[in-house]
Amino acid sequence: MSRSEKLRAHTTRATGKVKEIAGRATGNRRLRTRGRFEQFKGSALSRTSDLKDSVRATVRDLRVGKR
Q1: In this structure, are residues 12 and 35 in contact, taking their beta carbons and an 8 Å threshold?
Q2: What is the pTM of this model?
């Protein structure tokens, strides 16, 4: 996973957490829900990029094994 993907996933999760906390503090249900969604989105981005890394490693191992 590239550094930019890792950073984007981490930033999205952190932004979501801030929005959720702000929504709770102000009683704004929409902001709290949006924060939860962004946390989920950040987690999904992280998992997707981890999956990409494992697929790349597997393909690389298969190529080395054929030589």
Answers
A1: no
A2: 0.78
State the residue for tokens 């191992």.
61
Gap between the Cα atoms of 60 and 4, Å rounded: 22
Q: N- to C-terminal Cα distance for the chain?
A: 26
Distance CA(49)–CA(24), nearest Å, equals 30
Residue 23 has pLDDT above 70, yes or no: yes
SS (H, E, C) 36-53: HHHHHHHHHHHHHHHHHH
> Where along the chain do its domains lie?
3-66
| CA distance linking residue 30 with residue 1, whole number of Å | 32
